[in-house]
Amino acid sequence: xxxxxxxxxxxxxxxxxxxxxxxxxxxxxxxxxxxxxxxxxxxxxxxxxxxxxxxxxxxxxxxxxxxxxxxxxxxxxxxxxxxxxxxxxxxxxxxxxxxxxxxxxxxxxxxxxxxxxxxxxxxxxxxxxxxxxxxxxxxxxxxxxxxxxxxxxxxxxxxxxxxxxxxxxxxxxxxxxxxxxxxxxxxxxxxxxxxxxxxxxxxxxxxxxxxxxxxxxxxxxxxxxxxxxxxxxxxxxxxxxxxxxxxxxxxxxxxxxxxxxxxxxxxxxxxxxxxxxxxxxxxxxxxxxxxxxxxxxxxxxxxxxxxxxxxxxxxxxxxxxxxxxxxxxxxxxxxxxxx
Length: 339
Fold this sequence. Notes:
By secondary structure, the protein is mainly beta. 8% of the residues lie in helices and 54% in strands.
């Protein structure tokens, strides 16, 4: 056989082997599956019974199956399984991990309560003033301000709804921690509640206070009977103390809001004339002076110790009607503020 023929046959053999190798790789890749479902109660340490939309699957669990992402296969738990066909005709699990829910952290609320004995590795049962809440803990939950969770511990949890319809913990902080946001407790109408110190966030509205504390951002609702004594404004960066409690809607509610800064309110005395202005609270507003953007321009109005609020304090961007009196200093002073 000539050298040329031998060379051609060698090249042909190499090509054939390469084709078979590619087919084998493709076949091996095609033999890998990823399935989602819930754990069935028939599951054992050797076989996973998985309830899927298409029906029940039986998947073998091997000694080398990666279970680092799901160490407990409990009934109804949502999981994802990467599996392949084995030589025994069974599907074998290469990796099992818990299905991660998508959490909408942009719409969150903070609750305060006590950890109960029902709490597990991944679910906190929190006893609050409005009942017991069931809150899931994820790998992404921020526990920077809570070193460990124990039964009977009082904690704050910022929660948000997940795609699995459960409430999930976004952040957890220990109420007793020295770097937490609780400065004391307050007793209002016979109820003892957290008394928190922080600053007003710039997303604050007339229905929701964005409250920045050392433990994170809290969302607190106002009530019709919230006490705003000595607090005429809620402007970004303003230092305030809020006594709050857990409401039945899973939000913290403000029982009392106190201004911590020196406001320097005016004492106008008697007024020579009165007038009403309607407009939006300007970002130029300070603790003692309201800058009101009206159709006729910006009106500067002083805030007095006697200024009356019909609702929440002044909030940047909100529309209010202000009854003003002309003081002896020839400037307008707010007599009454209404939303």
